[in-house]
Amino acid sequence: MALAWFICPYKRRNPGETPPTRYCAMDDFTGPIWADNGWPQGNVPGSPTFWSETEILGDAAIVKVRAEAGTLSTINAAPGFLRIPNHVDLGDTLGDLTAGQKQVLLNKAVALGYSLAEIQAALPTNWSTVTLRQVLAFLAQRRLKPRYDPDTDEIVLDGAVQPVRPLDDVVADVA
Predict the structure, then answer these.
(1) Rounded distance between C-alpha atoms, residue 81 and residue 79, angstroms
(2) What is the pLDDT of residue 38?
């Protein structure tokens, strides 16, 4: 069994219904993840957690997953999903990422709504000593409150800044 970190989108669960609800798109893979771990699909009280998330800016989540390598590859190929390459432990330094891998993470941060100036102020240009915790904590510093716009039938994320679930809670959920 392997562990991995992903950045993935939120989706609308009930198109056309009012009010709509949102869910972490990792839930689309709950069945295969549970099967990989030898459990029937579904959340039974007291059962283990095989993926856990914290919502972040940009209608996205940071998710830790435990599953087979093939399932993790399938998840990574899903639209809007990005797997953090090569690292699982929050203390891992990311100095071994290629320039391309680093650029993909930086581009994702910008796409989520963080400015380049904000990124550069928080993370040094040379990532030889930057840890996975630093990058994920930067991404998990805020999220915006969603609201439903009945005129456009869309969920809009332009509300007040909301608290973010601590990364350590996500880590503790998925061992």
Answers:
(1) 6
(2) 79
